[in-house]
Specification:
With 412 residues, the chain is an alpha/beta fold. The strands form two sheets. The chain has an eight-stranded mixed β-sheet with strand order 3-4-2-1-5-6-7-8, sandwiched between helices. Strands 11-10-9-12-13-14 form a six-stranded parallel β-sheet, sandwiched between helices. α6 links the parallel β7 and β8. The radius of gyration is 21 Å and the shape is globular. It starts with a strand and ends with a helix.
Length: 412
């Protein structure tokens, strides 16, 4: 297949979306497919173009056999208001059109994740090349932004809702990352025959169960502690870190329990302020991808958090990293979120509702008292992960959906 992928984030951005897109494109290239990645100049997480890419408006490069076309974006720090962020999204959506027109003629165009304006431009590119158009939905927008209180202007909401309907109507297939998200899309009027569930994943070879002694415990001086790890974005969708800090206050009478919170985002500063004075909480900056296994290995249990507002519109991809690391998964989410479903099916952890400080503290104390339970759940997590959420399984599913629409177009 000749595949044109379009997304705002790509390597060397080493957070979730930037990583899984690199993994999938490399996997496709290794199997003989020709892949072009049309993307913006790297700017996440600080909203500043990386030094090696500054002062440029257009660039073509080769990355591990992937043809990468980079176009200009008005980079905006995530702490900025919604209007400035819309300018950032709009700038990339406009500039990528030029990149799409100069790319080789693909067999299929796939737009990966948000923002919505970019999906419309990606559809225009598919029309120019007269090929099928796929959309991969990681978060349901604008519903997610409305639920989280990030988007309040009624006119903007109506504009984005129109964009959403337009994209879903024009797409030949829509890939969603959970059964719950599929059901939500059907409720919004999307024809079921357009929808395909394509789970996210973790690289089964890069993230493996490691002994605690090989982790970051030593450099942090917490070798002998019972450690609760959170590693990921400290943003709006995962905003219930407040419950984690409050639970740390409840259990601070137990000197053996320690919390390690790793990452960056718009919520980190207020979370640090909330944790001021607590000796059982350590904050750590966002770590390079190659150190993620060492961070997860530090945990006796690892947290996955999805706020109440994000229940139906997002699924944390870090779920799969925790499972790959062979650690018990302590999920803070509603029962209907797919993370809770995975925990129940795999019997690999516990679920606590957002805001339930007492419940979270009790779950942590229970794990502390019965560490063998956490170890057994960690083993189950890795076993279930190997059956369902490997890179091989996830990328294969995407390839199948792309081949499906190409063959369908050929029959037409």
């Amino acid at each position: 297949m000749r595949i044109l992928m379009i997304c705002q984030y790509f390597w060397p951005e080493t957070f979730g979306p930037g990583v899984w897109k690199r993994e999938m494109t490399e996997w496709l290239v290794q199997r003989g497919h020709r892949v072009t990645m049309l993307t913006a100049f790297p700017h996440y997480p600080k909203g500043v173009i990386f030094p090696d890419y500054q002062g440029r408006f257009f660039q073509m490069e080769d990355f591990h056999g992937i043809s990468v076309i980079r176009t200009w974006i008005y980079a905006v720090p995530r702490q900025q208001g919604i209007l400035q962020r819309m300018l950032g999204y709009g700038s990339f959506s406009a500039s990528l059109l030029a990149g799409g027109l100069v790319a080789f003629r693909p067999d299929v165009v796939i737009y990966l994740s948000s923002p919505l304006p970019g999906a419309i431009t990606a559809w225009l590119v598919s029309q120019w090349h007269r090929v099928p158009f796929l959309v991969s939905v990681q978060d349901i927008e604008p519903e997610r932004s409305v639920e989280l209180g990030l988007l309040k202007n009624k006119t903007l909401i109506r504009v984005f809702e129109w964009m959403e309907r337009f994209v879903y109507r024009k797409a030949d297939r829509i890939c969603v990352i959970s059964e719950g998200m599929r059901n939500r899309m059907i409720a919004k009027g999307v024809p079921p025959e357009k929808l395909r569930v394509t789970y996210n994943w973790a690289d089964e070879n890069a993230i493996r169960p490691l002994p605690k002694a090989a982790s970051v415990r030593g450099e942090l001086g917490i070798e002998d502690k019972f450690v609760v790890v959170y590693s990921g974005n400290m943003g709006y969708t995962m905003a219930d870190l407040e419950t984690v800090v409050d639970a740390a206050k409840v259990v601070q009478d137990d000197p053996d329990i320690h919390f390690l919170l790793v990452g960056e985002g718009v919520r980190r500063e207020p979370i640090e302020q909330r944790a001021a004075g607590l000796t059982n909480v350590t904050f750590m900056d966002f770590q390079p991808l190659e150190r993620l296994p060492l961070v997860l290995a530090a945990g006796d249990v690892c947290l996955v958090i999805i706020s109440r507002e994000g229940t139906h519109v997002s699924v944390p991809s870090k779920t799969y990293s925790v499972m790959a690391a062979g650690r018990a998964l302590l999920a803070i989410c509603e029962d209907v979120n797919d993370t809770a479903r995975v925990v129940r099916e795999a019997q690999c952890g516990s679920v606590v509702h957002p805001g339930d400080v007492a419940g979270l503290a009790q779950a942590i104390r229970s794990y502390r008292e019965y560490p063998q339970q956490a170890a057994e759940q960690g083993r189950r997590a890795r076993d279930y992960f190997e059956q369902h959420f490997t890179l091989q399984a996830g990328a294969t599913r995407y390839a199948e959906v792309m081949q499906e629409v190409i063959e369908e177009a050929a029959r037409r």
